[in-house]
Amino acid sequence: MNRHLFVSKGRDDIPRWSEAFPGARQCSPQQVRAQAGAGDHVWIMTDIEDWPGLTERLVQRGAILVALSHQPNATQAFQALNAGARGYAHALSAPALLRQVALVTVNQGLWVWPELLRQVVGSTYRALGGASQANTQALACLTARERDVALAVAAGNSNKEVARKLEITERTVKAHLGAVFRKLRVRDRMQLILTLSGQEASVTS
Amino acid sequence: MNRHLFVSKGRDDIPRWSEAFPGARQCSPQQVRAQAGAGDHVWIMTDIEDWPGLTERLVQRGAILVALSHQPNATQAFQALNAGARGYAHALSAPALLRQVALVTVNQGLWVWPELLRQVVGSTYRALGGASQANTQALACLTARERDVALAVAAGNSNKEVARKLEITERTVKAHLGAVFRKLRVRDRMQLILTLSGQEASVTS
DNA sequence: TTGTTACCTGTCCTTCGGTCCAATACTTTT
DNA sequence: AAAAGTATTGGACCGAAGGACAGGTAACAA
């Protein structure tokens, strides 16, 4: 594969794109939706109808997505990354830069428009202060080991994963977990996570 | 320049590093502080005294920093990126992977340990308030019916209960749920509930 | 010593969860 | 009219989850 597909409405930016990648083709959203597959490099403009959705879909198919914007901004950058895009750059980037972006993204890297990168990472780091005020109330009546298991399970791990992490048998995880269920009076891991996150399970039966 | 310098306390991981980069040298924090300059590729272990500070300083000098950890986690990843590192990977990554990281970072790309990438991007997106709540963002790409099922499941209901509530077959619940998993790129209902409640699954394997 | 508790493991079994292979019908888009 | 998306169901399959039952060690208190 390894084709380069440019998804845009108009065709104004095509020259520098095709200069960057001689074999590149311009496509409509419908065309990429139909054609793009694993290994393809898809460059998508953010002025396209539902570009995050399309991005997400193509990423699922194994394509490498790079979002391009005429006015790069932080929110859109994260929308792109959140949708699975591996790059976010200015639409009028120089061919050399585009090739650099391709090189990075094809190697599992992320490429974010430099001016945005610094700004975004900085503000985010500050914003992410305290988050883990887990329910100490519920955890109080558990033994140390049960707490370990409960927290690991509540983080979304499977029994097998918990077992690996705590270096015990999957069977032991089940044993502890059973005790946790009894003590906290929940019926399964779903209820456990709801309890520990302070929410309430709304189960009718 | 373009030297490769590894900063670590011990020397246990040196073999695979020097296998990845034949000319690589292992340094103490004091040595890199004195020697490293523009264009150098510096790989720093996160068990080093004040590694964020050292990272920051070397980045200012124009070096390319990659942080390496034995237990990659989101907070540390942020610390690294915030300090100006361009990469964050597992300390025991295979030589081929290390070379890939080098290729990406030298081209202005970011390289984040894959398991963490989604987590980091997701939490960042929310922290920025790009979408006030993660769940609305996630639910947007679902159909009405899929939303019904996803919410019922996230409330802690079993498939059977959801089926009763929505007056459909358990089989249909599974079908919708499968679609939800695909679209939200989660592997099971545990991850789903974590996603919808705005938390992040910290699953390592 | 005995009793209790935490912790760890095993086997057997049932149910649940998730995915694969379909299929039918309805609506919307092209 | 043709194509695509959505909603619904079926069956088969397999692994995960959880309970029942039955052990084992180690620490600590009565």
UniProtKB/TrEMBL annotation, chains A, B:
A GO biological-process term: regulation of DNA-templated transcription
One Gene Ontology MF term: DNA binding
Keyword Lipid biosynthesis among UniProt keywords: no
Nucleus is among the record's keywords: no
HTH luxR-type domain location: 135-200
Keywords attached to this entry: DNA-binding
Pfam name, any one: GerE
Organism of this sequence: Modicisalibacter muralis
Protein name per the record: Regulatory protein, luxR family
Leader sequence residues: none
Domain of life: Bacteria
